Amino acid sequence: xxxxxxxxxxxxxxxxxxxxxxxxxxxxxxxxxxxxxxxxxxxxxxxxxxxxxxxxxxxxxxxxxxxxxxx
Length: 71
Description:
Elements: H1 2-6, E1 11-19, E2 22-30, H2 34-50, H3 60-63
């Protein structure tokens, strides 16, 4: 939709999941321009917050961090 039109160079995907009785959604952004990728990600976070959600950010760097626990 509208966000993809604002950021045509950024790939966006959504992956619903159901784990331990909880429905969730993973949103993924990919791109080679770090500044634009950060901008698109921030817009997604703001949209989720405007809709009353609480986003949890996870990047490739933090996904491999031993300090994070898996769900």
